[in-house]
Amino acid sequence: AAEAPPELEPGWTYLDVTLHPGVTDAEAETLLAVLGARGLAGVRAATGRRYYVAGLDAARLAERAPRTLANPVVEHWSVGAPARPGFVEAEPARMEARTVPLRELDEAGLAELSRARRLALDVQEMRQIQAYFGREGRDPSDVELETLAQSWSEHCAHKTFRSPIDYDGPPPGVREGEVAQRIEGLLKTYIVGATERLDRPWVRSAIKDNAGIVAFTDALDLAFKVETHNHPSALEPFGGAGTGVGGVIRDVLGVSARPIAVTDVLGFGPLDLPADELPEGALHPRRVYDGVTHGIEDYGNKMGVPTVSGAVWFHPGYTANPLVFAGCLGVLPSGSHPTEPQPGDWVVLVGGRTGRDGIGGATFSSMEMDHVTHEVAGASVQIGDPIQEKKVADLVLAARDEGLYHAITDCGAGGLSSAVGEMGADLGVRAWLERVPLKYPGLEPWEIWLSEAQERMVLAVPPDRWERLAELARRYRVEAVRIGRFEATGRLVVEAGGRVVCDLDMAFVHGG
């Protein structure tokens, strides 16, 4: 039953704020887990905030609430009446993919399809997809099209750094003169190239895994990962920064290392920026600063991973899009990180359940931001659950020490599409979406496959070690489910409800 409004003195009112349906409510999920452990089933819970306000009438408070006391990207609110809890109402299961007519579209039609579905693919890339399915003699399913968009996104494929550059200007190390040269991609020439030329014996792994690994002692290696989480933090500072920290921690777990420290480099607009100079659609730098710093400390502290270093810059250039550069340091026994799944290995999903969190996050982070981004990209923002990730970390490290998996990766950008697809890139894999544990019913196959719900890892587990892994998962109270199998087919096959909804050549997915 709804709570009765409190008795207030004249001139006072209140504002209730709570999360949208489907946005992760970590506190409510913790409460439900405790109640479930005590045998109380069928209970729903949601959390929110209440602000008591004097001196503003209800209309002015409602006008000022968005982007000051509430964030419309992830929250809704009510003035003078209890807010509606953000429960996700039950929907019927939707284990059917939709065919996307593609083969007959002209360039304008391809561009519009990419824009409408927020694929972040240009016309040339859409032409390549069109040609592939022309050879296949059919149109793609929505699962296949979204899979390719995630795999080819700037976030996952680093197209800017891979693209060739025609350069006219001074040669390297010289300030004057002009030379014409073609650079075969910044990544290949200056990042991979420098690493290969140096060829240091203490570099265990660089460029291609979840995190870099270097030798520390004869018995121990160090893992380090840094990445930006700018776009999500611009929309929802607390959640964006928190999941940025959670993401680099999972990347370190993804090379079988124990996370031991976090570092952050941050950039914000001026905290004293006049309100009339704030770009349309942007949060004020004070709001971004408070949310980002709180999100960083909240995630790391709850996992027991301290923030040991960092830096902060203030500059007008960071007003609309802050810099949130998160890093994590980990330690692992030398030679303890396996990287090759074998035919017949189970695809095992461990950790949090899957919802509509962060769908399209990889393509969203590959797009330019403007004043309406916050209105159309709210589903691309996630809220993390560090307590869940701590349990996952404990399970992964125990499984590593017992040699229970052949390969491991985290579910980050692109969700299962990226994690399972990349792990099986050189082999082949078949996944069964109906086995994926869901936060609530009603998700379509492409949503399950692309969801970027946090705190999830994927392991390649030999059949004879599955029972032991399942036993450890029960001990650490982490959900572990077999959702597929690696097979030597060179294909990415995804089934939903007994029907194939995706069947792609791995070579095209990762090299097309």
UniProtKB/TrEMBL annotation:
Residues 209-331 form the PurM-like N-terminal domain. One of its GO terms (molecular function) is metal ion binding. GO terms for biological process: 'de novo' IMP biosynthetic process. Signal peptide: none annotated. Keywords: ATP-binding, Cytoplasm, Ligase, Magnesium, Metal-binding, Nucleotide-binding, Purine biosynthesis. Residues 342-495 form the PurM-like C-terminal domain. The keyword Lipid metabolism does not apply. It comes from the Bacteria. Residues 110-159 form the Phosphoribosylformylglycinamidine synthase linker domain. This is Phosphoribosylformylglycinamidine synthase. It comes from Oceanithermus profundus.
